Amino acid sequence: MQNDQPGMNERPEMRALVLEEFGTEPVLRSVERPTPGPGEVLVRIEASGVNPLDLKIKAGAAGHARVTPPAVLGIDLAGVVTEVGPGVTRFDVGDEVYGMAGGVGGLPGTLAEYSAVDADLLAVKPARLTMAEAAALPLALITAWEGLVDRARVGEHDSVLVHGGAGGVGHVAVQLARAHGAKVFATGSAGDLETIRALGAEPIDYRAVPRQDYVDKYTAGEGFDVVFDTIGGATLDSSFAAVRTYTGRVVSILGWGEHSLAPLSFRGASYSGVFTLLPLLTGRSRAHHGRVLAEAAELIDAGKITPILDPTPYHLGTVEEAHRAVAEGTRRGKVVVQVGGSAEPPVSRG
Description:
The protein is α/β, with parallel strands linked by helices. 27% of the residues lie in helices and 23% in strands. Strands 3, 5, 6, 7, 8, 15 and 16 form a seven-stranded mixed β-sheet that branches. A six-stranded parallel β-sheet has the order 11-10-9-12-13-14, sandwiched between helices. Strands 4-1-2-17 form a four-stranded mixed β-sheet, with no helix packed on it. The chain is globular, with a radius of gyration of 21 Å. 49% of the residues are buried.
C-alpha cells in the first residue's frame, strides 16, 4: 500500500517494474518514490512506450545500454510534472511532458509510477496527442530526427528511401522526411505496403522487387539522395549501392556489423551512424534531445506526424504480455503500457 503521509525523513512509495536479473521477467514492486535533484523534475508517469531494446535489455543482450540489475525497465514516457528540482526553469508543476527519459546507463526506467528525470531530456507534450500516443514517440522520433535532420540534412526536393518504413522508427522517419518536403519511398513486406502508402510514401516490396529495379524506376538509375536504414546487415550493404553519386547520404541506426565501404566510396557518397542512447549514457548533449522533441511537437501539432499505436491495452501488471507482443511481431503498431490509473496492485515489496 502506498504511504500517502510520509514522515519527515520518509518518501511515499510507488510501484515499479524491477528487473532483478537478466533472463527473467521483471517483478512489480513497491519502492521508494524518488526525489528530484538539481536540474531534475519528478514526473508522474501516465504511459510508457515499449521498444525492442527493452527486450534485449531484459535478456542481457544489450551491453551497449549499460544496465545492471536490479533495474527499472522502460525508456520512453509521457506524464505530468509533480515536483521541480533546484535550478529548473523550463517546467512548472502541472506541465504535461514527454521524453526518452531513462532505462539505460544506470538511469531509472519509465515502467514506474514516478521518475526523477533530467529536465534537459524532456519537452512539453504535443497538445494534439494523448498520453499513450506521446509515450510511443520519443526514442523513435529522436532517432529519426538525428538521422534525417541532423546527419542527412533532409530537405525539399530530396528523394528519400526508408528501409523498414512501417516499423517503429521507420513509420516516424517517413512522416518526418515528408514534413521536411522530401519525396519518400519506403521498403516493407507485402503486409506493410498499405500502411506505408497511408503514411504518404511510395511502397516497395523488398522481397518482390530487386534493388536495382526500384533504383532504376524511381531515380532513373541515379540513386536516392538519402537512404535511411533501420534494418542493418545486408540491408545496409544494399543501401551503399542505392544512394546518389557524390551527394548521396546513407544513415543507419543499426550499422553495428562489419561492412565493406567500397560500394559507397566508389559513388563518392557519405555514411553516418546514429546512436541515440549516447546522451543518456554519457550525460553530454542531453539538451539536444529536449530541443528535438520540442521542435517535433510543432510538426505533430500541425498534423504532420502521428504515431501508429497497437490497440491492445497493457498496464504494469501485463508488461510480460506487452513484451511478448513485441517479440513475436503480433502487434499492430507501437505497444504502449498505461501506467497512470492502473489498479493493479504490487506483487511484492523491495
